[in-house]
Amino acid sequence: MSKFKKKKGGELPAISTASLPDIVFMLLFFFMVATEMRQNTLMIENKLPAADQVEKLDKKDLVMYIYAGKPSQRFESQYGTESRIQLNDKFADVSEIAAFISAERASKREELVPFLTTALKVDSDANMGLVSDIKQELRKVNALKINYTTRKGDALSGLKN
């Protein structure tokens, strides 16, 4: 009969580092695929109003964003403190919205144009007159699908007395 030997000491075998580069590259590849880069640099203050009934948009690639609010601190000296509109990465006037919508429609495939939605990301302190002007311009170019972007929260908590 053979004799079994007991291992002396409870030493663990050394961990193999041969697969470590593979793991690092898999993680790198995962984060490169999963991370979505911000497309626009915000030049305005954009504290979204709260709402208690919020729905997520399904297809974000079919959304055109219009930002409205006061210029951020680094742009205050150049543009003042009055609420402004930001289209992509530049400040714009209300009259430039039609050209922006036309350019966005032209950049999409023709069969997707009826599904385009305009999302208004308006600061909670922006005046309603600016929002009304934006909506009038959107009516002129027949961009009637409008989404108001909000954050989830109590809608009544932000009311001022």
Shape: elongated
Count of helix runs:
4
Read across the widest sheet, the strand sequence of neighbours is: 4-3-2-5-6
- Strand segment tally: 7
Strand content: 15-25%
Q: Can you identify the CATH class of the domain at 50-151?
A: Alpha Beta
According to CATH, the fold-level topology of the domain at 50-151 is Nucleotidyltransferase, domain 5
Unreliable stretches: none
Distance between the termini: 93 Å
Biggest sheet record: 5 strands, mixed
> Which percent bin holds the helix content?
25-40%
Order of helices and strands: HEEHEEHEHEE
Any guess at the CATH architecture of the domain at 50-151? 2-Layer Sandwich
**Helix/strand/pairing class, anyone?**
alpha/beta
Radius of gyration: 26 Å
Mean pLDDT over the residues: 88
What does this structure look like?
It comes from Formosa algae. It is found in: Cell membrane. InterPro entries: ExbD. With 161 residues, the protein is α/β, with parallel strands linked by helices. The chain has a domain at 50-151: Nucleotidyltransferase, domain 5. 29% of the residues lie in helices and 17% in strands. The chain contains four helices and seven strands. The chain has helices spanning 20-34, 73-79, 97-107, 128-140, and strands at residues 50-51, 63-69, 84-87, 90-92, 117-122, 146-148, 151-152. The strands form two sheets. Strands 4-3-2-5-6 form a five-stranded mixed sheet, with helices on one face. A hairpin with a 2-residue loop joins β3 and β4. The longest helix has 15 residues, at 20-34. The mean pLDDT is 88.
